[in-house]
Amino acid sequence: MQNHGFGRRPLLGLSLAAGLAVPALAQPRPVTLVVPFPPGGSTDVMGRLLAERMAPLLGQPVLVENRPGAATVVGAEYVARAAPDGATLLVNSGTTLTLNPLLMRNLSYKPEDFAAVSLLSILPFAFVLQNRLPPNIADFVALAKAQPGRLNYGTNGPSSFNNIAAVLVAEKLGIRMQDVTYRGDAQQLNDFLAGTLDVLVVGGASAIGTHRNGQGRIIGWTGDRRMPGFPDIPTFAETHPEAVAQTYFGLVAPARTPPAAIARLAAAAGEALKEPSLRDRLLAEGQFAIGSGPEECAAFMRQEAARWAPVLRRMNLQID
């Protein structure tokens, strides 16, 4: 089974004492965490929880600013062009610095425009099935193979991470489903609750809430480990080791941000993510807290790009 190496061994992150011993930023203004999604989603939740806990550690205000649009391009471009002084950071997801550079021919930024600060968390997706459908992976696969292309699932578009996760897992399971494109998770959930959508492929609170409310059933996770709180629900990777498809959240700064500022911010983020109440809250949102140092964050993002590049080429996805 593939294991990205986080959550099961001590991290090599920076110590808070070492990081916060660096003098405060030259300009005594708030640190702004730019979230490239609208309020309310998993990335926004991460940004706000982190900002609340980083502020007292840094001794200065930490604000959250939502700049959604164009598959996170609007927010990412804003941070890439910001002054490299440690005062403007991006709460990025796998979409921003993994998928977009691989999929978009005319992307207005590149990964090299950012300096890694910290890998914040990992978020797997869940396959949530209608209660009328089989209650486990084996029976679901048998049904899907008996009726190829008949079952449908919702996505946020061909290049969205949940669609790519669904396609990868379906490929490894040897099944074929019909995708239905929506403009967001809310529309998918409405159709699922109305019974017109067979399968939700979503992460976080949407999957967990639907399952706990008895409105659907999670049959499997797309991550590399089971989710605490749901010990009886397996991962697809337990029987199909290559069926791992999970996104991540990270903290990055504009390139050329001074190493001292990066170290200070990474130490604060890492210390915040050690807090048990925050780790528990993120688990409730379907996220595994990490809190790495800059080097681990950068290495992880390079690894993700290398892993997904051949998958996306095989899927023949490209956005102008």
**Total count of helical runs of at least 4 residues:** 11
Largest beta-sheet details: 8 strands, mixed
Taking pLDDT < 50 over at least 5 consecutive residues as the criterion, the unreliable ranges are: 7-19
The CATH architecture designation of the largest domain is 3-Layer(aba) Sandwich
Q: Tell me the overall shape.
A: globular
Q: Rounded to an integer, what's the Rg over CA atoms?
A: 19 Å
Structural class: alpha/beta
- Share of residues in strands: 15-25%
Q: What is the ordering of alpha helices and beta strands?
A: HEHEHEHEHEHEHEHEEHHEH
Helix content: 25-40%
- The residue-averaged pLDDT reads 90
Q: How far apart are the termini?
A: 35 Å
Determine the CATH superfamily of the largest domain: Bordetella uptake gene, domain 1
CATH T-level topology of the largest domain: D-Maltodextrin-Binding Protein, domain 2
**Name of the level-1 CATH class of the largest domain:** Alpha Beta
Per DSSP E runs of 2 or more residues, the count of β-strands stands at 10
Count of the separate structural domains: 2
